[in-house]
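I have been asked to look over a protein record a colleague put together. The record follows directly below this note.
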Amino acid sequence: MPEQLWLPGLEAPPTPTDGLFFAVFPDSNTAAGISKFAQRLCGEARARGRPLAANRLHVTLRHLGTFAGGLPPAHVEAAMQAAASIRMAPFTVEFNTVASFASKPRPGPLVLTGTDGVVDLHALHDALHDALRNCGIENDRSSAAGAFTPHVTLAYGLPWAAAHPVEPVCWNVRAFALIHSLLGRVPACCACALAARRR
């Protein structure tokens, strides 16, 4: 195949190397229980998908972008300022449904979701949206608050399956974190370089 040439000013964009997002993590005991549950589901599905390790289980609250060559310090600082402005009391979350984010017939993620038990996650997500907008990161054209679906990814690469109720998984949310992920090098949630704790 001949080498592809780029016209001046139309060079290929640099490959993203770093990501930034806000997330909520279950406590270690709950994470261990979720991980065992995910392993069982993968075994029952008899698919190639593998469950996520306990230390990777989380709820993504807000993606803040991907970047090439490291994180922009001003972007990180603005995100930290936004996080510091959040004022919410601790709350309990409950996930009671297993659902597939796969598109028939292709395999995809299997996740835990909830309804009434994730209302406070919606409130935290919306508060972050407003705080980030005030700090100049978000704008009114950013991803709409209604598009947020709180979920915990259990495994990737599983076949589509109808959503069904499961034994509720609950934990107390007392903090959230700003996560620096090193794309393609380490699992995103194991590269926690920054933290923003709720007060």
In short: The radius of gyration is 18 Å. Residues 141-146, 186-199 have pLDDT under 50 and may be disordered. The helical segments are 28-45, 73-84, 119-134. The chain has one domain: 18-190.
